[in-house]
Amino acid sequence: MITAGSIPPNPNELLAKPLLDELISDLRKDFDFIIIDTAPVGVVSDSFLLNRLADVNLYVVRADHTPKKYIEEATTYFKENKLTRMYFVLNSVNMNAIAYRYGYGKKYGYGYA
């Protein structure tokens, strides 16, 4: 684990340097997964700067907690190709409040409603 340490006066400049690219490249040789945790998309530019290094961008949202506008903004960034290979993870879902339906007939249906 490499921690961020103290906040530098110029974080964007540091994230854009080739030295970070070299570090990630070296780490890829030794590790199957490299996880970089950033602030939420749109709050600061970290996510956009680190997008070039990411194999996958996971946007974690909490059910009944994350404001819808944040999800809409993230979706817009994806559609505009500002963030690539983006996936959403929905957590804290109350499974007791979800109806489970299974059916078979002229049309096959499976899933949660």
TrEMBL record:
This is Tyrosine-protein kinase wzc. Keywords: Kinase, Transferase. It is an enzyme of class 2 (transferase). The gene is wzc_3. Gene3D superfamilies: P-loop containing nucleotide triphosphate hydrolases. GO terms for cellular component: plasma membrane. It comes from bioreactor metagenome. Its EC number is 2.7.10.-. SUPFAM superfamilies: P-loop containing nucleoside triphosphate hydrolases (SSF52540). GO terms for molecular function: protein tyrosine kinase activity.
